[in-house]
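Trying the structure run again after the queue cleared.
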Amino acid sequence: MITRFAALAALSLFATSAQAATVDFATNFGAALTEGTEITDFDFGNGLTGRLTVTGGAREARIFDTTPGSVGTTSAKQGGGGDEDLASPFTNIDNASDKRSFGNALIIQESARKASAIPDDNAGRGTITFAFDRKIDLFSLTYLDGEKGAVVQVDGNRVGGVARGADNLFDVLTFDEDAARGIDGFTVVFRGSGAIGAFEAAPAPVPLPAGAALLVTALAALAVAKRRRSA
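Done. C-alpha cells:
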C-alpha cells in the first residue's frame, strides 16, 4: 500500500515538460494571420502567450507572406511584398540541396509610411523581443534571408546567431539547454534585412516545490522500510 501510494504521489507531484510547438505565424488568438497584419500581443496556442516589442524601422512587427503569387506580388519569383529576397522556396545555408517553402514570416516594418501598404522588411538594424506570460523552453528558430546575419539573445546574452549569407537562404538555429530553458523571453537582433520564419518552443515545466520533494522522499523511505520489515 505505501509503495503504491509513494509511486502515485511522485507521479502527481513531479512536473512534466509540455509538448513543443512550432510557431509559424499562421494564426494568432485562433484567427488566421494575413499579410501586413501587425502583431503586438500574441497567443500562438499551446500556452505560448505574451507580447512583442520592436526597435528599428517603424517599430512594428508585421506579417510578410513569402508565397510567390500572393498579394502585392509583381513577379512569380517574388514574395507577397514584392521582395525577391523573401520568396519561397529558400535554400538551407548549410545544405544547398535542402530547399523549403515557408508561408508567413515575421518582419520589422521598414517605414511607417507603408503601415497600410504592402509590408517591407527593414534594411537597417532592429530587434524583435518576445516576452512570454510564463517561462518557456526555446528549442529552435528559423531565420530567413540573413544577408548581414542575425543574433538571438536571452537576457542580453547571445545564445545563437546567423552568419552573413545570400538572398533566399534559411538557417535553423538550435539552442543549448542551459541557455534557452526556463526563460521569460528572447530577442532576435536583425543586422540588416531578414525575417523570422518560425520558432519551436513550449511552456517550461513548473519546478517541484521543496516541500513536495521532501514528501516524495519521505514516502519512498517509508516504502523501503516496510519492505525490509516484511522480508
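Confidence is low (pLDDT under 50) at residues 5-14, 71-77. Worth checking whether this holds up in the mutant runs.
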